[in-house]
Amino acid sequence: MKLSHLARTTAVLAAIGLTVTACGSNGDGGAADEGGAEGESYSIGISQYVSHPALDATAAGFKEAFETAGAEVTWDEQNSQADQGTMNNISGNFAQSDHDLIFAIATPSAISAATAITDRPIVFGAVTDPVDASLVADWEAPGGNVTGVSDMNPVHEQLELLQQIAPDAETVGIVYSSAESNSVVQVEAARDAAEQLGLELVERAITNTNEVQQGVQALGDVDAIYVPTDNTVVSGLESVLSYGIDQQIPVISADTDSVERGAVATYGIDYHAQGVQAGEMALRILQGESEPADTPVETVPSEDLEVVVNQEAAEQMGITLPEDLLADARDVADAEGEDEE
Predict the structure, then answer these.
(1) Which of 68, 100, 104, 224 gets the highest tally of CB atoms within 10 A of its CB?
(2) Alpha helix (H) ranges present in the chain?
(3) How many of the other CB atoms lie within 10 Å of CB of 170?
(4) How far, in Å, CA of 57 to CA of 270, rounded?
(5) Are the C-beta atoms of residues 42 and 317 closer than 8 Å to each other?
(6) Higher confidence at residue 98 or residue 5?
(7) The pTM is what?
(8) Residue 117, class by beta-carbon neighbours within 10 Å (0-12 exposed, 13-18 middle, 19+ buried)?
(9) Mean pLDDT (whole number) for 155-184
(10) pLDDT number for residue 18
């Protein structure tokens, strides 16, 4: 990624008051970095909102942090598959359990867990704006039993990337779940960014994954589509990708996992790394080095943001990616080639 993008992203995050606190991979992360948890054992409940690659990667990264530290963990992994009743049952069961800590993946699961559980730490991952979701009182001082790692993404830079890929684009479609506060926050950011960049944003709100196809078709004659880190839409991403291919317009995503599934590009978050970051935070809390109430919400370090492209998807959508972009980007095909070796 070009340095200008990285610098701007850092400025954006700083401007909205986020604090990139020291995480394990960056320095003074504490015992998690030093293998200090070796020999210790914990019982941890994981409440995941729905299955899709980004959230699955978050869970895997979280567990990897404990494995790296040498901690022995009894995992209780539950997935509500986006069903509110199931999600509340999971939270209720966790509240009655003897788990030492709860890891909640995505905003709906975190809200449900925080409502039901007040007597032990809750660490979240893949939550965009924990203050807007009433999970914490403040980014710097959460004030309760909940803290975690935000996946706030650089929406402005991602729309700039879209303009670099499709310089003639004037209208950008965005489908989002009106029930997900994390998505509403991103749409608001996209409105501001679009106005600054001279783009027209065409919005369509949906309520469940079955409506993704209907929502994207209702966008009409747009020049490109932007997919935020919306769990409902990402769960039905294939409908969006098919529309992009049919209409020969680029689909840009907010996360790297969606590029691997067929979006053209992103300047986004590595959700596995974000999960590791949340796991290292949880270890510090379990080891008594910090309390959730005074553990600032972390964001993903700028060095973990990268431009990721999918040249095969670009060809399918009739897009020729600029050479200067390719020079700085990671192509998902490279990773696939390495996996085959």
Answers:
(1) 104
(2) 3-15, 31-34, 53-69, 84-96, 107-116, 155-165, 181-197, 212-217, 231-235, 237-247, 256-261, 271-286, 311-316, 323-328, 332-340
(3) 11
(4) 9
(5) no
(6) 98
(7) 0.78
(8) buried
(9) 94
(10) 37
